[in-house]
Amino acid sequence: MRIAVITCYDQVEEHARPRILRRALAECEDAHTLIVKNHHQGMLRYLEVPCRLTWVRMRYRPDMYLLTFRGYEMLPLTLLLAGRKPVVFDELVNAVEYFREHGRMRAGSWFDRLFSALYGWMIRRCRYVLADTDAHAQLSAELCRTSRERYVTIPVGAEEAIFYPGPEVPHDGFVVFYYGVMKKLHGMEYFLDAAAKLSKRYKDIRFIVGGDKNRSEALYAAARRKGARLTYHPWFDYDKIIDYARAADVCVGGPFGGTPQSQFVITTKTFQFMASEIPVLIGRNRVNNAFIDKKNSLVVPQGDVQALVDAIVWAHDHPKELRAVGRAGHALYEQQFSQALITSRLNDIVEACRP
What we know:
The protein is an alpha/beta fold. It is built from 13 helices and twelve strands. Helix 7 packs parallel to helix 8 and helix 10 (about 270-275) packs across helix 12.
């Protein structure tokens, strides 16, 4: 069975999700993947990917198309070229939800109604839509006015060839590590306020943060002026993240923003740290009830600076218990979020789409 796997991401170093799905497909029986992905950034990718996809369609005539995250712009073309062949769309975040949360359209406006109708029509054209959580699947089905049965929940997971239990890296003091961007759902303003408070009380607690290509450097600088003991890195190479994580006592998964989107996600970094058996600090939401505070993770209410302070203080004061939290987090990952589980669910989709 020939499967075209299409990725059109806004960075050359793509999101981990496409790589995880491609690895899962490689383990599916009798599945031959045809990889279509961009090597250019910016607007050039919107020329490159359509040309590559059209060539693959004409040359190999795929039996199934899988459009990976973040592929909203390529969905119309993929549906057109696929014709009657099944299209599987790895949505992860519903586009209507995303635009509303980031202020790009107001719920109920004429543009919102038009876009929602068009996007919903495209979603209904897909054979399956992949969501990262059951709650996200339900939300997307409601926003797109389509059947929940169209959705398959496949957790984001982690690239286990990179993120796996390994030896701790010796380091001075108590280190808290965060990488990522300053999107609203992450609520890093609360985390930075907590860092400032902690740095005044505990001289051995320090924070290694960044990974946003200087887009939020001013915010980190403001936190340092408040007293936060921060080491800022504009970027972390993907294969080096695990080195920073193993040199930390606690890694930050979030989200803490208290936004609508933050109620439906378990972040990619959370899975990466759990797979690596490193204690992770997260914000409570509607989809992470399996995470138990001080048992398999550190869990705080979102938008609560003092709760973040208290959680990090507990971790600082209980090193033995903290190591047990990391081990239990890894066990939870193996049970509910592993590559084996992702492969199994994706294999079921492949079987259902066979001609």
